[in-house]
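A quick word before the example. In earlier lectures we treated sequence and structure as two separate objects. From today on, think of them as two lines of the same record. Here is Amino acid permease written that way.
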Amino acid sequence: MEQYKKNSLTLTGAVAMGTGVMIGAGIFALTGQVAELTGELFPLAFVAAAAVTAFSAYTYIKVSRAHPSAGGIAMYLEKAYGKGVTTAFCALLMYFSMVINESLVARTFGSYTLQLFDIDQSSWLVPLLGVGLLVFAFAVNISGNRLIGTFSLWMAVIKIGGIAVFALVGLWLADFSFTTTPPVGIKEASAGGFLAAVALAILAYKGFTTITNSGSELVEPQRNVGRAIIISIVLCTVLYLIVALAVNANLSLAEIIRAKDFSLAQAARPAFGQSGLWFTVLLAIVATVSGIIASVFAVSRMLAMLTEMKLVPHRHLGMPGTIQRHTLVYTIVLAMALTIFFDLSRIASLGAIFYIVMDIAVHWGVLRHLRRELDANGLILVTAIVLDVIVLGAFVMVKASSDPWLLLFALAAMLLILAGTWFYLRNGVPEGEGHEHG
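And the structure line, produced from the sequence above:
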């Protein structure tokens, strides 16, 4: 893996990377879970999530134009809050949310692959296949940026084209309509449930942040980071909407929820038959493989930047090579552990909480410390914060009644990260090396 090689990623490659992470963790992994929260109108939850993401993207684009960096969000936080506990804590929330995302994609890969062999989703093969995918992603990432860019580009073309075909043909073959009455045995979704679903659906878009980690490699980063983010979000919004409509047209809500870990594969059965099932599963494999590769690339870079900024400790543990190689190993091992021990629903929920908390911190930091420097619109920044708070609050309320242990785990994990960063920066950083804005 090369050391921030300038101009090693093109605009097209950056878009491929962004959509690779977004689609891998998006429509394949989250459709059923979003439908479970919001009911028959779940396609609209993806549209609403795109709107929330658009407000968030404004902040990242404004900062990226002024400060393109391989550290991406870590560098943005440092510009806003200084080199202190707040920056380290929020950057690590982002890091862990992306590692959680990788385990989500890895388990999705296992769930869809097993559909080809009619094996139960509780099988130990699901995490085993996920771990195997992570090993493959490690091998590709140590091969260098250009291989990653080329691989991601071709995978993006295949999956976007294939998923669009699945959605459009599925809509054409099905008797498409929205039902206004929930099926028997399915509770009608509330406004809170819809907002909670939006919070979860945001995970399908947050992959755009991986593009910010490529500022040192991207051609003309001041212009192309923002362009790549906008193109990726627009492409995924259109794709998610037509796929969600196709799933809604071919399956009842109860069927979608029962098959929530592999809902697209289930939707392919009535629309396309057995050949359609194979086609959809192969698309899921392409999407998850490319998503993992792109995510590991960006996230290991981010952790390397945090190490270079002396915001997190680093140990070689006897490994040869650069810091980037070491952070790649740490990222893969952590993703493997999550893949083995957590199910898809809890992985997604944990990732949503971590990401939205970090996102709020980024917007607040820019609003309070960088707004004038970046000539950013204060109303847009405030709106982004308010939208994040609303959907996160709704999500926490829903989980408080359905899975309170998850919230306790998330809170404990965040407190542990906070305590760890405080202890390290207090005892591990030479005096004068860190500072924090008041």
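Notice the following. Residues 11-427 form a domain with the Amino acid/polyamine transporter I fold (CATH 1.20.1740.10). We will return to this example when we discuss secondary structure assignment.
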